[in-house]
Amino acid sequence: MTSVPTAPLTVLVGRPRYEGANIRTWIGFKHFVYLVEEAVLQWFRDRGPGARQLFHEHGLGVEIVDCSVQLPAVLEVDDEARVEVTGESAGRLAVRMTVHRDGREQVVLRGKVRVVLVTEPAATTSAPAPAHLAELVVPTLGAADAVTRPDHRPLATGQTVADVLTPAGSNAFLWSWRAPYFYCHFSDRVQHSGYVRALEEVVDRFLAQRGISVGRLVRERSWIPVVSRARVRLVEAALMEEEVHTVLNVTGVLRGVMFDARMDCYVRRGDRLVHTATATILHGYAISAGPRAGELAEFDDEVLRALSGGAV
Fold first, then answer.
1. Could you tell me the domains of the chain?
2. Contact (Cβ atoms closer than 8 angstroms) between residue 37 and residue 192
3. What is d(CA 245, CA 202) in angstroms, rounded to the nearest whole number?
4. Which pLDDT value is given to residue 8?
5. 107 - beta bridge partners?
6. C-alpha–C-alpha distance, residues 17 and 78, integer Å
7. 92-101 and 81-87 strand pairing
8. Residue 182: which residues within 8 A CB-CB, separation 6 or more?
9. How far apart are CA 116 and CA 244, in angstroms?
10. Which of 88, 113, 147, 172 shows the greatest Cβ crowding within 10 Å of its Cβ?
11. Across the 312 residues of the chain, what is the mean pLDDT of every consecutive 10-residue run?
12. 49 burial class (0-12, 13-18, 19+ CB within 10 angstroms)?
């Protein structure tokens, strides 16, 4: 990837990773977010210092704590994407991603990102933060957002995680996973992209558990997943190798062709569940073959029952 800095604009030119071409040559939403992350890191480099220098010389960890994206068009495996980042106050950045297609520039992503610099106990030095970045410094990840109220949950004697997160009668889906080191930052905690991966996986597991797996709908209906928007926010630190309890709830169906869902992640510490991240996603399907190829698929009764847990 190459960078062409033009103050106050950061421009990163790159291509999505081949890993993201899972169905035909279209790139999944996760890899849009990866390109955004690369551009945010370049924003720091263009202003100096970058993430490595901030950690080793200032004891600070660059952390994306909130990323919201809208995806109005597809990104394909050989596309060259131009990602523009403009800085706003208090680490709030605006992102725009375009590709050159059919002789014109096409917007494939619009996004908002919030970044902070977390004081890192694992760092061996701690020179003061550069003056132009000082407002981004927070003592802990949990101190990064003073507005959002974490949804911590108490655990009564005898209660299980499932009792609290998927009570009887709810449409919630629960999946628990061990936070591996390769989802973490700074020898310590799950990073933003780890939760992006979790969002993709929990939706996939939910659909499979409800009998409408991605593979089945691709084979039987030529329906391919489409994500129109997604947002992932970090709330508190989930530490390396903790068990992350992830719950997904479908919160609505939009015009019979998209569903909204919310993901919340928790770790158990003593007698409470600590809320570590929250996310939303707008998900539907495009028809990839036949006379309606390229159109959004309309949900039938089977799909609606699956999304609602049995009730239509």
1. 1-145 (3.10.129.10), 148-312 (3.10.129.10)
2. yes
3. 11
4. 73
5. 98
6. 9
7. antiparallel
8. none
9. 23
10. 113
11. 60 96 92 98 93 94 97 96 87 96 95 96 83 93 80 94 94 97 96 98 97 96 95 97 98 96 97 97 92 89 92 47
12. middle
Contact 120, 186 (CB under 8 A): yes
pTM of the model: 0.93
Q: Six-digit token pair at 289?
A: 């073959």
For 23, residues 6+ apart whose C-beta sits below 8 A from its C-beta are 214, 218, 224, 225, 288
The pLDDT, as a whole number, for residue 89 is: 67
Amino acid at 183: Y
Determine phi and psi for 203, rounding to 5 degrees. Answer: -65, -45
Q: What are phi and psi of 64, to 5 degrees?
A: -75, 120
pLDDT the model gives residue 6: 41
Q: Is 122 helix (H, G, I), strand (E, B) or coil?
A: coil
Dig out the tokens for 288 from the structure.
């990839």
- The answer to whether 13 and 5 are in contact (CB under 8 A) is no
How distant, in Å, are the alpha carbons of 55, 170, 171 from that of 167? 42, 6, 9
DSSP 211-234: T--HHHHHHHH-EEEEEEEEEEEE
C-beta separation of 305 from 250 below 8 A: no
Six-digit token string for 240 = 């390396």
What confidence score (pLDDT) does residue 296 get? 93
Show the CA angle centred on residue 115, arms to residues 111 and 119, nearest 5°. 165
Q: Tell me how far apart the alpha carbons of residues 310 and 305 are, in angstroms, rounded to a whole number.
A: 4
Reading the block at residue 217, the tokens are: 């709908």
User: Which of these, 61, 239, 68, lies nearest to 138 by C-alpha position?
Assistant: 61
